[in-house]
Design goal:
Layout (H helix, E strand, L loop, with lengths): L4 E2 L1 H23 L6 E6 L6 E4 L5 E3 L1 H6 L7 E6 L2 H11 L5 E5 L2 H9 L9 E7 L8 H10 L2 E7 L1 H8 L9 H11 L4 H5 E2 L9 E2 L2 H16 L8 E4 L5 E8 L3 H14 L6
Parallel strand pairs: 1-3, 2-5, 2-7, 5-6, 7-8
Antiparallel strand pairs: 3-4, 8-12, 9-10, 11-12
Helix pairs in contact: 1-10
The structure holds S-adenosylmethionine.
């Protein structure tokens, strides 16, 4: 199996998620009356191990980072649709009774099998990492996480995939199949209004908006349409050329969670720019 080589921005993401997951597990483990059962969910889990592009060293991926957190989560769900990666996840999980590995499309698996393990009324709570390479995540997943009130998410908002494949300068040239991918992620067609501005232009010709405008429009959707109460400003993850590859979002129902993540984002904001 060839491990994925990951750039600096992915290492920053791993550090951010690990740091918050450790705080989350510490807080949830200490909670009494009622005590809570907290679950870690990694929907696009990867192989559990990567190679750093900058050093050539092996570095733990998000599932392994989560497994090493102390105090531990009560239960872990790791999902990937690549069978070679799943084999490695299974090897990693073999010594644990409470780690469940799922092979297949996480969009279905989350809604049918995993989110039902994190019901608010069962005194369960979950931290869910949604980290696709591109537009491979469906809005229903984010919406359901918000509606359940028990699930917090980190979300990779794949702006580079959007820019390269969907959001052509001329909206008339958007490929219909790419538009469908965008709509599946965004939840409806309102991405068109977010992506193209017709107001400032004398001739009424649509003009493509910028990355910040797209990220802000999606932040408002997570709050107002999905119903997450707290969605801090996301952190842009930039490649070595300074281009934003994706935005890392966090969304929660808890003000304290958002405060912790804001502080972590601020700490890493400059590193994400390298
Ligand atoms: C960016 S990598 C994940 C990296 C991992 N979160 C980490 O930080 O260590 C994305 C992974 O998602 C998997 N994947 C892509 N589409 C998927 C889908 N629909 N369902 C489940 N896994 C998927 C790929 O096989 C790949 O391993």
């Amino acid at each position: 199996m060839k491990f994925d080589e990951i750039g600096n921005w992915s290492e920053v993401k791993l550090d951010i998620v690990r740091e918050y997951a450790a705080a989350y597990s510490r807080i949830l483990s200490a909670q009494e009356s009622p005590s809570l059962y907290h679950v870690y969910i990694d929907a696009f889990a990867g192989a559990g191990m990567h190679i750093s592009k900058s050093t050539g060293d092996f570095i733990p991926g998000s599932p392994l980072n989560a497994l090493l957190i102390k105090p531990p989560f009560k239960e872990y769900h790791l999902i990937d649709f690549d069978s070679e990666k799943v084999d490695l996840l299974l090897e990693m999980a073999a010594e644990y009774q409470n780690v469940f590995v799922h092979e297949g499309d996480c969009n279905g698996i989350l809604l049918e099998k995993v989110f039902p393990k994190a019901k608010y009324s069962d005194y369960r709570r979950a931290l869910c990492l949604l980290d696709p390479y591109g537009l491979h995540l469906n809005w229903e997943v984010m919406l359901t996480a918000a509606e359940m009130k028990s699930i917090e998410i980190f979300l990779n908002f794949p702006i580079m995939d959007m820019n390269m494949n969907v959001l052509k300068k001329d909206p008339g040239k958007v490929d219909p199949l790419q538009a469908l991918r965008m709509t599946a992620f965004w939840g409806d067609e309102s991405w068109r209004q977010a992506a193209y501005d017709v107001t400032g232009n004398l001739f009424g010709m649509p003009e493509k908006t910028n990355n910040e405008a797209m990220a802000e429009a999606f932040r408002q959707r997570l709050r107002k349409v999905a119903g997450f109460k707290y969605v801090p400003e996301p952190i842009p993850m930039r490649n070595n050329k300074g281009a934003t590859v994706y935005y890392l979002f966090f969304a929660s129902q808890k003000p304290v969670a958002a405060d912790i993540v804001r502080a972590i984002f601020d700490k890493y904001r400059d590193k994400g720019k390298k």
